[in-house]
Design brief:
By secondary structure, the chain is mainly alpha-helical. The protein is built from 4 helices and 2 strands, in the order αβαβαα. The protein has a two-stranded parallel ribbon with strand order 1-2. Keywords: FAD, Flavoprotein, Oxidoreductase.
């Protein structure tokens, strides 16, 4: 078990936040992301992973709003198959594959599940 203190240079702390906010007006960045919900955080990660300098700001905190209520599931488009939206189902499956293989393989993994098909379960 690692009992060492977090690295203050990389830990998300109030002191680091204040230090970086104070330095921001003097810096020129490639990308400014406003809003750190799922989409904003993903855009910031994608830009940074491509070597761009990124400043990301939010009125509250990372994933403070709607994103904090997420089910944390990465959908693969199955719900669109039921209504015949094959193009949307395909696009969702491709995006899920990108997340699993390239964007966030350290965060996303497949989980098996069982869906009972009984009269009590709507289709």
């Amino acid at each position: 078990m690692n009992t060492s203190a977090p690295d203050p240079r990389t830990s998300l702390t109030a002191a680091r936040r204040e230090r970086e906010l104070a330095a921001l007006p003097d810096e020129v960045v490639d990308v400014l992301v406003v809003g750190l919900g799922a989409t904003g955080a993903g855009a910031a990660l994608e830009a940074a992973s491509r070597g761009l300098s990124v400043a990301a700001v939010d009125a509250h905190d990372l994933a403070f709003g709607t994103s904090r209520w997420s089910s944390k599931l990465i959908h693969g488009g199955l719900r669109y198959l039921a209504s015949g939206q094959l193009d949307v189902a395909h696009e969702s499956a491709v995006e899920r594959g990108t997340l699993m293989r390239r964007t966030a393989p350290h965060l996303v993994r497949a989980l098996p599940f069982v869906l009972p098909l009984t009269p009590l379960v709507s289709r």
